[in-house]
What we know:
single chain, seven-stranded parallel β-sheet, six-stranded parallel β-sheet, 14 helices, 13 strands
Amino acid sequence: MITSPKTRVAIVVSRLTIGGAEQVLLEMLRHINRQRFDLHIFFLRDPGPLGKEILHLGFPINTRIIRYKYDMLGVFKLAGLFQDFQADVVFLNNHLNALFFGVLAAKLSGVRACINWEHETFRKYPFHHLTMLGRRILHLGIDYVVAVAKGHGDYIATEEHVPRSKIRVIYNGVDPKRFQSSLSPLEARRRLGISPQCPVVSILAALRPDKAHHVFLHAARMTVAAIPETHFLLIGDGPQMPYLKALTKDLNLEKQVHFLGFQRQLGDIMAAVDVNCLSSYPQQETLSVAAIEAMSAGIPIVCTNVGSMNEIVIPNETGFLVPADDPGSLSEKIIHILKDVDHKQYMSYNCRRLVNDMLSVHHMARSFEDLFHLSIAGSIN
């Protein structure tokens, strides 16, 4: 029996810090079909916190390929590594330096196809116009650009001038098994030190300015005025931790707000939650992985109408969309869900179904496998 040779895919990343884009790459690598694909991971810098988890997956890896930001020798070093690996496809993950070094090295080494996976919307770079011009030029060397939602594909076509024929939409996917728990909501709340009968609202996001946690905290103050027993979980870490803790004290919410820090095991925590929120500003937010993770646990979403969130947060079906920087609207929808138990259960069912139908890691991984093969076929024609 003659078997087809495996497709050899070179994955190029800068380093993997804690974030949604990095998490979905990790999940894709966990679920790719290794009988059909040989993958090699090329870290331009050190692996980073999530990169260390990839080290345990058993893929061959190179690290610290570049020594500094504009290390042009890194282009030649990476090209040589592609040739040694005999890469069929170069796959670039979101980062600007991965695009720069990856495209040039792919062309130098004669790799058959190059794919860029983008995750950001309306990000402002230093020397923004010059940077965007550079991105457009580099995308001339890209065969396909992966957008994480239909609206994101429109943004890439309009703002980055990538031909629509090059754009493929593959929705972010999560593994629902990671968010299952054997705990009841009452047990999960007890573990968090919360009275079992108290409603719980969460926000799962890095503590950065663009995530606008201060808006969430002001909405929490308004929610407590209507439902005094409500508790709020801030799940994540980041530079705004001191500011947000001070704001919590100023709002007299110290007894209701719980800072849980960064958490890798979320199932037992999410079992305690009634509503999950996203209070982000438009900058950078595209299709929140954290929101999808909460939805996979059957938690309705109240989030700002940013990025392409309107493709998964369907009003009255899976949650509610509210204007950015509007704590009153955020609080109003939180209160509605907490008070209308039947509607909450209806949305919970719809959230799980949407993730299983469209936003699972298995669907995402199969879509990437199809794209890898399509890119090879296109290079032959």
